[in-house]
Amino acid sequence: xxxxxxxxxxxxxxxxxxxxxxxxxxxxxxxxxxxxxxxxxxxxxxxxxxxxxxxxxxxxxxxxxxxxxxxxxxxxxxxxxxxxxxxxxxxxxxxxxxxxxxxxxxxxxxxxxxxxxxxxxxxxxxxxxxxxxxxxxxxxxxxxxxxxxxxxxxxxxxxxxxxxxxxxxxxxxxxxxxxxxxxxxxxxxxxxxxxxxxxxxxxxxxxxxxxxxxxxxxxxxxxxxxxxxxxxxxxxxxxxxxxxxxxxxxxxxxxxxxxxxxxxxxxxxxxxxxxxxxxxxxxxxxxxxxxxxxxxxxxxxxxxxxxxxxxxxxxxxxxxxxxxxxxxxxxxxxxxxxxxxxxxxxxxxxxxxxxxxxxxxxxxxxxxxxxxxxxxxxxxxxxxxxxxxxxxxxxxxxxxxxxxxxxxxxxxxxxxxxxxxxxxxxxxxxxxxxxxxxxxxxxxxxxxxxxxxxxxxxxxxxxxxxxxxxxxxxxxxxxxxxxxxxxxxxxxxxxxxxxxxxxxxxxxxxxxxxxxxxx
Amino acid sequence: xxxxxxxxxxxxxxxxxxxxxxxxxxxxxxxxxxxxxxxxxxxxxxxxxxxxxxxxxxxxxxxxxxxxxxxxxxxxxxxxxxxxxxxxxxxxxxxxxxxxxxxxxxxxxxxxxxxxxxxxxxxxxxxxxxxxxxxxxxxxxxxxxxxxxxxxxxxxxxxxxxxxxxxxxxxxxxxxxxxxxxxxxxxxxxxxxxxxxxxxxxxxxxxxxxxxxxxxxxxxxxxxxxxxxxxxxxxxxxxxxxxxxxxxxxxxxxxxxxxxxxxxxxxxxxxxxxxxxxxxxxxxxxxxxxxxxxxxxxxxxxxxxxxxxxxxxxxxxxxxxxxxxxxxxxxxxxxxxxxxxxxxxxxxxxxxxxxxxxxxxxxxxxxxxxxxxxxxxxxxxxxxxxxxxxxxxxxxxxxxxxxxxxxxxxxxxxxxxxxxxxxxxxxxxxxxxxxxxxxxxxxxxxxxxxxxxxxxxxxxxxxxxxxxxxxxxxxxxxxxxxxxxxxxxxxxxxxxxxxxxxxxxxxxxxxxxxxxxxx
Lengths: 519, 519
Hints:
homodimer; 519 residues; alpha/beta
């Protein structure tokens, strides 16, 4: 029996910046990761897994930036069991107020045979060595046996016992391939807690391949796990991880089922956190997503509407305002000044100053001329784009002229500024966006390939802001870029330029993310 | 104890066309519903809940069309307990090979007090009367106590016993507000099966407000439910219903957890069904959606990719081809003829002929001139748009010219054909799409308000087809329209015209959907 008895608090370990960032096409730079980490701190998560420092210089710097800049949550970094990996992880984390090293190794026969090419004794020895080395750096060490749900139980118990002996304080059980079924996974956690002695916290890390990540996580909690690893919007490899917002709200809405266990999450920040992560990753949130989807509190049918108007609880178990899902408010108009603008942003938790504030304000005025209602969601979108563009931008879009339709060939002319030099180019295309991108490719001389394209309207109505996210593959890297405008072709061109700038920033680093791993 | 013992088959009751269609902004017309129903039959669901006939003339006709046209699954219709409702439901269903009437009434104190304004005795009497009347029409009658999870147990047992006595053959337990937790909901089903005697099948209907719909459904199955109510892509009120694809794949991947229970679903049709429903409803599927999301089988991290290349099962528990998620294949080029075109469509399960085939082929040739690779997803998109436009279209888009950019004001000129008469209009706008929509508003004289706008690229690459879905509110109705083109502004204009045509079709019916309800 574990000597750590259930207490009244569930630890929320957010891995949006590590497992979430492993989603295809997501490539956050250090500034974007820091922005998300700051919002996670505001949200009140207990741990931020900031990345996998050994994976690349970029990952190292991102983890270091968060360890140095973000206060509140404990900052965690992922590490394989190798001594050099562990040391590198610690180098990135050492400036944090509180830091955790998260050591992992695969334990399933499939992984040991096909990837590690190690036998059981070697895996146990590596576990001991890695955890022990981590403990030399910090008292807070987590260990994960990767692909736990497909690992023979006896062997897993041996590995876990070795980890605890070597000093692991949290044992995390990952359902790496999303194979678990709630009752089965809960029984596994219960069994481990009974059989592995020592002073540790049990943790769960569930993937969503069968749509069961949230349920499996909760079954783990019911079985005694006191840490849950989650991602905002359920991001992560393949079908993603358990969604932070779902796990947190299940505990909040059904305290009767979890012995009154609470989290430190400020639920009213959930909707904003979801929007920020969606915007920076380029991953849209589906309308019918639980808790943070735009329909989560919408009622279509007459009787449902009637019911909700008569008494909210007839069809709603969550009050929309408790998760920050409130109707878009009109916050500013075309006559608002710079001070009111900055003030409104800061009330929204968007602290910007200097050139970013200047350019965001300029974009706001330009927008206010074209659009009657400026909502907080519009402001978030503008600031997000300006933040994305703020660092080392090689190119800025100076002018764009396009024409097209069903008659004649779509055509675009662009002017970009490259550190003071104007470059102009023209192109035809299959559509106006295609023409604009081709012209930009000529002007920037960066030969990119668009692999993804997503437009969403920030707010409803014909005068809605178009929020375009493109995924661009160029020079061996894949990045996303974002652009916002009332015109979708202009937004696309802005997103394209934003992505090209990112490619150049990534390429300007000498080393590359060579490999990435994780439970 | 129920006398119906668990057998080897789980009944899949699909309610995409009833509960799914209650999602905000979804408004399928009869032709679209029929198209989805045909695909559901191909997929192999056991039941199709086609709609709620009493809600409106449109709903009635849609149910009737499906009852008359779709073979294979049993066709179900929803009905309140009123005798007139039940009779109207039967009128819509009567031409089906096999038909079920699904009778429901609310049983929770919240619903009885605020909506029904009925006491317990009245609810029980209404249940008896509704079910008995339904049994006069058909031997296959389902009964649902709405908001079951918030209904006091003793009262629910009384209602359920009354329903079975009156002749209900399926008892469906809806977690209407998504309040259930798997172990709790499973225990409820077990309790009901033990306490309610008689010859019936237990069924579950779970909502996803806490992200637990699939898990709760499976917990119900483990507790003895032999029918699961699901929607494709997890559509439905608020955060939606349990996702068909998740429930089906959980059983397929973990037979050990469900005593080898099987479904009749042809899993290789799951991906296509998901795409069709997404396209017709205008609801995008999030990238990281389990089973049918585009990332469900994508691997980003180096080690994961390495693992999967070495041995697929290292990080995948589902083989992508078993759910029809295979890479887009190049199926046709610009030199393909009409016969090859029709042949390819029919191999894809898209049976079109006559004018729809003509116009789809014309669009294909036009597209093949602009785009090198035509994939099956592209073809699906074109055919879907042409099918959407095939009936009683008042307007067709004849010509579009647009210009814009950062210099000057965005402008559009359109020509539409209105039953032989050309109407031309010009407008400026905040963006080119806005300008095009404003010009179309002038030309069609339908004063609409765009409430939603979504663009997705059908396939990757710069020459991707843009698939635009708009949601338009006009003349008191809300519809969605779809347009496909390599140019996003043209696709938007097509979608707008498609939506305007739908508004006119809906308005041409005298009566309106007055109220809609459901578990």
